[in-house]
Amino acid sequence: MPDIIRLLSESIANQIAAGEVVQRPASVVKELLENSIDAGADKIQLNIRDAGSTFIQVKDNGKGMSETDARMCWERHATSKIKKAEDLFQLKTFGFRGEALASIAAVAQVEMKSRREEDSLGIELKIEASEVLSQEPVNCPVGTSITVKNLFFNIPVRRNFLKSPSIETRHVYDEFNRVALANPHIEFTFFLNDNETVKLQKTDLEHRITDLLGKKGAGKLLELNETTDILAISGFVGSPEYAKRIRGDQFLFVNGRFIKEPYFNHAIHTAFEGLIPADFFPYYVIFFEMDPSKIDVNVHPTKTEVKFEDSKSIYSILRSVVKKSLGSYTLTPQLDDNQIFNFTTSSLPENEVISKYNSPQINTKYNPFSTDIQPNKRQDWGKILEPFKRPETNFYEGGEKSNEMQVTKSDNLLFAPEEKVKFDGIFQLTGGYIVCSKNHELYLVNQQAAHERVLYDQFQNQLETHKTAVQTLLFPRVVEFNPGDYSLVYSLIEEIKHLGFDISSFGKNTFIVNGVPVINDKADPQMVLEGLIDNYRQNEQRLHLDKNENLARSMARNAAMRSSEILTILEMEDLLSGLFQIPNPNFLPNGKPVFVKISQQGMADMFGK
Question: How far is residue 36's CA from residue 167's CA, in Å, rounded to a whole number?
Answer without folding.
Answer: 25
